[in-house]
Structure to design on (245 residues):
């Protein structure tokens, strides 16, 4: 089904040297897509479940350490992989998949897709889908835009490819990628989670030793609070079950 969007306005601004982008006119498009289950910010808030998601891998050093922690606790998570990292370390993606984790597309080169024309967005996505499918033999259902940057074109291309765009609603404030300290990461994440939270963390793109160190504590505390840790696919299934009740 073709999707029609009104033209969106990309507003760029700088905070402390970092570039941020605000989509001033995407609110309605996003609301429509959320209602259709084409974009996800959280799971079913009636269910005591949380999804851990890891971006920017696979990384030869940190991803295996994160996989070890997840295995120790019997937890399944979701990995949004960068295509060129997949090409460099296909065996790690295979390991993620074979361990029962869900793999998602995080573009080929991690550009700001919100600023790119449709043809570039499509090639970033298609190249990554192709590379991952070659490694694990299945088509992916999920995509997460780098920096969470959305535009009409990004949303339209994801819809065109028939994949769900997965955002998050917890973890951003923990800024695990900036190495703010293990205790800070733990405290921020635990203070923000609630039923259906999608937590953003990073297994690649730099030194992720603090994320690795924080992870067992985060998992233990969440389990102590009665949360079940699920993949994005399980979260989506939970939403659909609810709709048919
Ligand atoms: Zn990223």
């Amino acid at each position: 089904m073709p999707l029609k969007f009104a033209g969106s306005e990309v507003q760029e601004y700088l905070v402390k040297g970092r570039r941020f982008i605000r989509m001033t006119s995407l609110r309605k498009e996003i609301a429509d897509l959320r209602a259709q289950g084409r974009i996800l910010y959280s799971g079913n808030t009636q269910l005591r479940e949380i999804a851990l998601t890891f971006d920017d891998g696979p990384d030869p050093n940190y991803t295996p350490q994160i996989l070890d922690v997840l295995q120790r606790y019997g937890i399944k998570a979701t990995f949004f992989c960068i295509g060129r990292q997949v090409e460099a370390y296909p065996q790690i993606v295979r390991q993620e998949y074979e361990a029962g984790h869900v793999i998602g597309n995080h573009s080929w080169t991690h550009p700001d897709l919100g600023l790119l024309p449709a043809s570039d967005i499509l090639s970033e996505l298609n190249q990554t889908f192709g590379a991952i499918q070659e490694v694990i033999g299945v088509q992916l259902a999920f995509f997460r835009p780098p920096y969470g940057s959305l535009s009409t074109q990004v949303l339209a291309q994801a819809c065109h490819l028939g994949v769900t765009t997965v955002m998050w609603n917890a973890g951003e404030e923990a800024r695990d990628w900036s190495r703010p300290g293990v205790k800070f990461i733990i405290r921020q994440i635990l203070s923000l989670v609630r039923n259906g939270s999608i937590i953003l963390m990073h297994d690649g793109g730099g030194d992720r030793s603090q994320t690795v160190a924080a992870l067992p504590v985060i998992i233990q505390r969440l389990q102590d609070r009665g949360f079940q840790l699920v993949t994005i696919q399980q979260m989506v299934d939970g939403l659909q079950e609810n709709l048919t009740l």
Observations:
- The mean pLDDT is 91.
- The longest strand covers residues 49-57.
- The two ends are 26 Å apart (CA to CA).
- The CA atoms of residues 190 and 221 lie 8 Å apart.
